[in-house]
Amino acid sequence: MNLQANKDRIFQEVAACAQAAGRSKDDVTVIAVTKYTDSETAEKLVQTGVKHIAENRVDKFLDKYQALQVYDLTWHLIGSLQRRKVKDVINLVDYFHALDSVKLAAEIQKRAEHDIKCFLQVNISGEESKHGFKVSEVDNILEEIQKFDKIKVVGLMTMAPIDASEQELAKIFSEANALRKNLKEKNLKNMPLDELSMGMSGDFPIAVQNGATFVRIGSAFFK
Ligand SMILES: *Cc1c(COP(=O)(O)O)cnc(C)c1O
């Protein structure tokens, strides 16, 4: 495993995909998902120049956060969050990617000491096993969440089925972008909706082609 080479290759590929889609490479931020690895390896990855780190579980988030405190990093929590754990973590998180219920939003509102930048997780593909709101309910959900003034909805997050074809991926990701644009036009208070968190190791080129502004990449760094 050569972390520096993997990092360089991933960043170059993301930049190339952005440019091929007529976008600036600065429009897309690479988030390194360190859930597969220990804090020592995560630190080595940070030393290659990665600035955005993500974990999907609260306990592992806190471990990495503690271990890497001396670095100037942006911290992402990307997995589903149990309400009873919100108080342990939410004020340390720069971006929370998995807002998937109004009850969770209420708990974040209760515990937040400052605005929390959140992505609304949307289940575009309609897969049963996936978390996230249905496309048809997002409108009403945003209205409900608007009453929580600590929650800033920066964008939408979605995950595609692992077995999706390239065509299906393009459809899911472009639908996510269309939905985001639609919701943004409502000009809801504290909901800028400029960002799209989508794309992982296996599908990030297609996500970037279709408007992703944050890609969450794990395994490709550690192979
Ligand atoms: C693990 C994980 C990723 C990264 O997945 P890879 O396929 O390893 O790149 C992205 N998003 C979420 C929510 C994850 O849990």
Automatic annotation (TrEMBL):
Q: What are the alphabetically sorted keywords of the record?
A: Coiled coil, Pyridoxal phosphate
Entry-linked InterPro entries = Ala_racemase_N, PLP-binding_barrel, PyrdxlP_homeostasis
The keyword Coiled coil belongs to this UniProt entry's keyword annotation:
yes
Residue(s) carrying N6-(pyridoxal phosphate)lysine: 35
Q: Which SUPFAM superfamilies match?
A: PLP-binding barrel
> Would the keyword Isomerase be found if you checked this record's keyword annotation?
no
Please report the stretch or stretches of sequence annotated as the Alanine racemase N-terminal domain: 24-222
Q: Name one Pfam family in it.
A: Ala_racemase_N
Q: Which domain of life is it from?
A: Bacteria
| Transmembrane stretches, start-end | none
Residue spans making up a coiled coil are 162-189
Tell me the function of this protein: Pyridoxal 5'-phosphate (PLP)-binding protein, which is involved in PLP homeostasis.
Q: Which family does it belong to?
A: Belongs to the pyridoxal phosphate-binding protein YggS/PROSC family.
PANTHER family documented for this protein: PROLINE SYNTHETASE CO-TRANSCRIBED BACTERIAL HOMOLOG PROTEIN, PYRIDOXAL PHOSPHATE HOMEOSTASIS PROTEIN
Q: What is this protein called?
A: Pyridoxal phosphate homeostasis protein
Which source organism does the UniProt entry give? Streptococcus ratti FA-1 = DSM 20564
Its taxonomic path starts at: Bacteria, Bacillati, Bacillota, Bacilli, Lactobacillales
